[in-house]
Specification:
Among the domains are: 1-170, Arc Repressor Mutant, subunit A; 181-242; 269-412, 3-Layer(aba) Sandwich (Rossmann fold); 418-502, Helicase, Ruva Protein, domain 3; 506-577, Winged helix-like DNA-binding domain superfamily/Winged helix DNA-binding domain (Arc Repressor Mutant, subunit A, Orthogonal Bundle), CATH 1.10.10. Helix content is 62%, strand content 6%. It contains 39 helices and 14 strands. A five-stranded parallel sheet has the order 8-9-10-7-11. It has a three-stranded antiparallel sheet with strand order 1-2-3, with no helix packed on it. A three-stranded antiparallel sheet has the order 4-6-5. α7 runs antiparallel to α8, α13 crosses α39 and α28 (652-664) packs antiparallel against α29 (668-685).
Length: 895
């Protein structure tokens, strides 16, 4: 703190003690410390002997209390040693002289005063520093080790209030300064300690909102409001209400999905000028590795201010080596949810989604970057429909019909000239002397004007400084092979890649080979470790070696991707591995994803009956997930790889684990594809359990997103297999789907019959939560049949069953059904309370889809009561929750 240590330094911001030259002095009994505390609290004034007696013995006096007081004072004098003269006898008692820097309370108060002075002068950084120094002095409750004394309580309360008000000003300073990653954490800790301190809550809400966590900020307000009403019967004060209203009225943050700009981008002036003149669609086309994505991302960052409503991005993977191009319907789901459309409102067909997308973009100015498109049919559903927004497309295909029909501006990106290539490579090598070396020109010629090849050679040379340019050029001279996925025979990229590959350490080269077996657009360290059959620490080190050689890119911490040409080269190397080694690596990858997915599925739905699944091998890495949010985030990041592996391997266990996520995120096409593959594989091997589970999931997927006839056929097959297995739980789940089919047709009587049948199967399976959920459905169907009172009876029984078995999803469902029955009965007040209970449970489980549904029902009940403002707030919360969840959808660009 820059303060010189005094001869004696007293502490009261926490325990009371006297410190001489940094060493604690023994004060003896607690009453000795109390005498010291009372003298300190008087701040140099006299404390009478009678006052000391009253405070030391408030109930029963000892034989000679005054003599004991004199003894405690004498002990204090002995503890002060050469400073005993500070403790003076003054009628009618004693006084302790303490200097301005000798008591932490004085120092604390002076720091607060100085911080406030600096704050009033606009010196926020100095003010924050001084407030921080004051905060460091606080050791806990003032006079913490002193027995209760009424004379000290006022002093302690005053110091605590000073500390809290100082904290609020300190946090306000830090919020204004920004760039403080610890602010939310510090505020959350203090709000937990002082939950009714409204100014702290307001600051926490603002800090959360500044960190992109507005939903959490609003949740903090609701929690605080509930505490205030419950404990004091009062609403929050005007300041906290004002912050809350500001967050509700602000527009949701505009999407900002652009990848990072390419560092050191140069040239392409004519192409940038062409893009500047583009109307509503622009197509950047050219051969592989020529820098189309780099140009598009660079230009998009330059013009982002032209699009105040944000930027959307998707890597369509049109020329991905694994052939896992993105379906435009699935891309539309991500776009619509990012733009705030609730999942329940998103149609099932691609055409309907495209129409809704155009409607949402109407009147907005948004940049839509569609990277690596295969053909026009993949692009068209993703185009904005009105002027103001712009779609920027990159593709190896010229997409001629987009130019002819949609009036797109075509921007051709050619290879670099030899001079431009030399400039780019020289900049990569960062050594002016290299350009005069004859080998430099040979290397430039081998790179054939492709920025990708120049970047790979430059990066590998920088990481291998012992190699001469002549060695590099000679290696390339001897390694010229056929072109890699390019119509230009001069583009000998494979020789460039193979030279960089040969420069790797043997373990890193082995890692690069097995990476060619991974199907996703990017991968985590854990998947790479599984492929290589090693631990994550070693895998991380090898991946970073590949990153330094520019063969892969760490686009964010722990996740790696690469250009699709480099992935194709890696896949070629993987194809040349010994068949046994390749099969073993693929088996480890499947086990990594399947076992992690099964664990993640359990976190999404803890009451779902687990499947029998043989444990993973000892050399398989399983990703540990902390809870519902971690599981959902993991599924979102690994979506493409999981679907590809499930479809390729036909693993019904992986498909089973994926189904909850795909259903909740409305990825209907992938849900159907994975279950079809699982069912076909299980039929081929004669796996009855696999056929039963895959057929049931396929029936559900087809019912929600596909063909009704196919759904009925799959359901019939599932029931037959569950009958053979004697699987009552499976038969009960099949009854649930039969309920939904009858309900969709408006046949509530048949739906009730199947719900009742499902209840019986759940009973045979000894599944208490399942019985509760069946009762909940029976109650709803009775209500729709005109028997709401009977419906309430079933619903209340369902609620009791769920609460008894600890089935939180079932309890939330029961509350929702009860709420809807009360709405049918014209009782919106009771419905409101039931929807509130449902929302609280869904929030506790992290079930965003269920919470959105509960908030929508709450809004309906509030509207029925005439509480329009509260209904609008509930709907805003639902929209923001949907947008927040969708903001995580991001996939890296192909470079």
């Amino acid at each position: 703190m820059g303060r010189q240590s005094p001869t004696v330094f007293f502490r009261s911001l926490g325990p009371v003690e006297a410190v001489d030259c940094g060493e604690s002095l023994p004060l003896g009994t607690p009453r000795t410390r109390m005498v010291l505390a009372l003298l300190l609290a008087r701040r140099g004034g006299v404390v009478s002997v009678d006052q000391l007696v009253d405070e030391l013995w408030p109930r029963e006096l000892p034989a000679d209390p005054r003599m004991l007081v004199h003894g405690y004072v004498s002990r204090l004098r002995r503890a002060l040693k050469g400073q005993a003269s500070r403790l003076q006898t003054r009628k009618p008692g004693y006084a302790l002289t303490v200097g301005e820097t000798e008591w932490d309370v004085y120092v604390f108060e002076q720091l607060i005063a100085d911080a406030r002075l600096a704050r009033s002068a606009g010196q926020l950084e100095r003010s924050a520093k001084l407030f921080g120094e004051a905060h460091e002095l606080w050791l806990g409750e003032p006079f913490a080790d002193v027995p209760g004394a009424t004379a000290l309580s006022a002093a302690a309360k005053s110091l605590t209030e000073l500390r809290l008000s100082g904290l609020e000003e300190w946090f306000d300073n830090r919020l204004a300064l920004g760039r403080d990653p610890e602010l939310v954490h510090d505020l959350t800790r203090e709000v937990a300690a002082h939950p009714l301190r409204e100014q702290l809550v307001a600051l926490q809400m603002q800090a959360l909102d500044s960190s992109g966590r507005r939903a959490e900020a609003l949740a903090s307000f609701r929690h605080t409001r509930g505490l205030l009403i419950g404990e004091h019967g009062m609403e929050p004060g005007p300041d906290l209400q004002r912050v809350h209203q500001q967050l509700l009225q602000d527009r949701p943050a505009a999407p900002a999905q652009l990848p990072l700009a390419v560092p050191g981008f140069t040239g392409r002036a004519s192409q940038i000028a062409e893009l500047d003149r583009a109307p509503t669609v622009a197509v950047v086309t050219g051969t592989a590795g020529v820098g189309k994505s780099a140009l598009a991302v660079h230009w998009a960052h330059q013009v982002r201010r032209r699009f105040p409503d944000g930027e959307l991005f998707v890597n369509l993977r049109g020329f991905d080596p694994s052939q896992s191009e993105v379906d435009p319907g699935e891309a539309l789901v991500g776009f619509l949810e990012t733009l705030g459309v609730p999942a329940a409102r998103i149609p099932s067909s691609t055409d309907a989604r495209a129409a809704l997308f155009r409607s949402v973009l109407a009147g907005k100015r948004i940049l839509v970057l569609l990277d690596n498109a295969r053909d026009e049919e993949q692009v068209r559903p993703l185009l904005p429909g009105t002027a103001g927004s712009l779609a920027l497309v990159t593709s190896r295909d010229p997409l001629t019909s987009l130019v002819a029909v949609e009036g797109a501006r075509s921007v051709f990106v050619d290879v670099l000239s030899e001079a431009e290539s030399g400039e780019l490579l020289a900049a990569r090598l960062a050594n002016p002397g290299t350009t005069s070396d004859p080998a430099f020109a040979r290397i430039v010629r081998h790179c054939a004007g492709l920025p990708l090849a120049l970047a790979v050679v430059g990066a590998t040379w920088v990481t291998q400084p012992s190699l001469s340019l002549d060695t590099i050029a000679s290696d390339l001279d001897s390694g010229v092979l056929d072109a890699l996925d390019s119509p230009d025979p001069k583009t000998d990229l494979r020789s460039v890649f193979s030279w960089s590959y040969r420069a790797l350490s043997p373990p890193a080269a082995a890692m690069f080979r097995v990476l060619g077996l991974h199907p996703g657009p990017d991968m985590p360290v854990a998947a790479a470790a599984a492929l290589a059959g090693t631990d994550q620490a070693i895998a991380q080190r090898l991946l970073m070696e590949l990153h330094r050689a520019h063969l892969i890119v760490q686009h964010r911490a722990g996740r790696f991707s690469s250009h699709d040409l480099l992935r194709a080269y890696s896949a070629e190397l993987a194809a040349m591995m010994a068949p046994g080694a390749r099969a073993k690596a693929q088996e480890r990858l499947l086990e990594h994803y399947a076992h992690t997915a099964v664990a993640a599925a359990h976190l999404l739905d803890p009451q779902r009956r687990p499947i029998v699944f043989e444990g993973p091998g000892t050399d398989v890495v399983i990703t540990a997930l902390g809870g519902h949010a971690d599981a959902m985030a993991w599924f979102e990041e690994e979506h493409a790889a999981l679907v590809d592996i499930a479809c390729r391997t036909g693993s019904w266990q992986l498909a089973w684990a994926l189904s909850t996520y795909l259903r909740r995120r409305n990825h209907g096409r992938d849900w159907v594809r994975t279950q079809r593959a699982a069912l076909a594989a299980a039929q081929l091997t004669g796996d009855t359990a696999g056929q039963a589970n895959a057929a049931l999931q396929l029936a559900m997927a087809e019912f929600c997103h596909g063909d009704d006839e196919a759904s009925a056929k799959a359901l019939e097959e599932a029931i037959a297999h569950f009958d053979v297995l004697g699987d009552h739980h499976g038969l009960a789940t099949a009854c649930h789907l039969q309920c939904l089919r009858a309900e969709r047709d408006g046949d509530y009587a048949t739906a009730f019959v199947f719900a009742d049948k499902g209840f019986e199967y759940y009973h045979r399976a000894a599944d208490g939560p399942g019985q509760g959920r069946a009762l909940s459905a029976m109650g709803w169907y009775q209500a729709r049949l005109g028997n709401p009172s009977l419906g309430l009876t079933y619903g209340n029984a369902a609620l009791e069953a769920a609460q008894f078995s600890g089935d939180l999803p079932g309890e939330a469902s029961a509350w929702e059904q009860l709420a809807r029955i009360h709405l049918l009965m014209g009782d919106p007040e009771t419905a409101r309370h039931a929807f509130e209970n449902c929302a609280a449970l869904q929030k506790a489980q992290g079930d965003h889809l269920g919470l959105v549904r509960a908030l929508s029902g709450l809004a309906e009940s509030l509207e029925s009561q005439g509480a329009q403002a509260e209904a609008d707030e509930a709907r805003r919360q639902a929209r923001k929750l949907t947008a927040t969840q969708a903001a995580r959808n991001w996939r890296p660009a192909s470079r």
